[in-house]
Amino acid sequence: MQFWRRLLQISKQQSRLSLRHYSSENWDVISNNEVKRFARDCMTSVGTKPQHADSLAEVLVQADYRGHYSHGLNRLDMYVKDIESGVTVSDKEPVILKESPATAFVDGQNVLGPVVGDFCMDLAINKAKRSGVGWVVAKGSNHYGIAGHYAIRASEEGLLGMSFTNTSPLVVPTRAKKPILGTNPISLAAPGLHGDSFVLDMATSTAALGKIEIHERKQIPIPNSWGVDAHGKMTNNPTDVLNGGGQMPLGGAEETSGYKGSGLGVLVEIFCGILSGSAYGPNIRRWKNTTTYYI
């Protein structure tokens, strides 16, 4: 609470805009633009470039708007602290290390994940328009928000868009004893007639980490298939999962096809970790050195 009060104070000091609240049952509804301003002000107050802050604000607001509350403003404090502590930087820009007409290898140089994500997807889109397909892999990235944000950018250009990222080891694969895979989301966006597009954006675990964190914060149980405790037993206590336990792969236990989720998680590790020559699986540090893949 103290942290959020400080962010609110920073935001109010840097803008004379007043929050416009609209009552909807027991909720206060704030405009997208106002939420983006708040997120942008929080980030620039700790030294983030305005354009980098804009990229992050767009991803966070889109996550909340699309119902991915685990990846919206719920994550803002993480990004602020990462800049403050130097875990991520804002004085650099992503660079292309190697490319062909249809492919590229990018170094994100440890800037904010959404900045790397936008750079790579824009690059993939341009290549696809010229060559028919664009494949881009990046190293040196960070938590980039919802994968669907980047896939949607391609679909808005009339293309099929895909985005993957590996993450910190949080998932206990089938027949394993400890977390060695990330939640490793995958996304596909395909444009349709009259705006009727298809968007898939999902973790390869049964649930995103942020959803378990939200359940812990609200002190409500989670479904048994979401995670295991430190002894490898399924639990509905989110605290047990977060403290020494781990998440379960998509499908849950082996009897309910959890090995399929484990396989999808490995697929993402191959695309994002091995293909880019970066860390993968248990070698990834929390929220750092993740890699991303864009088509």
Automatic annotation (TrEMBL):
Recite the UniProt keywords alphabetically: Oxidoreductase
| Superkingdom as given in the UniProt entry | Eukaryota
Alphabetical list of InterPro entries matching this protein = Mal/L-sulf/L-lact_DH-like_ah, Mal/L-sulf/L-lact_DH-like_NADP, Mal/L-sulfo/L-lacto_DH-like_sf, Malate/L-lactate_DH-like
Q: Name one GO molecular function term.
A: oxidoreductase activity
Q: Which family does it belong to?
A: Belongs to the LDH2/MDH2 oxidoreductase family.
Name by which UniProt lists this protein: Malate dehydrogenase
Q: Which species is this UniProt entry from?
A: Magallana gigas (Pacific oyster)
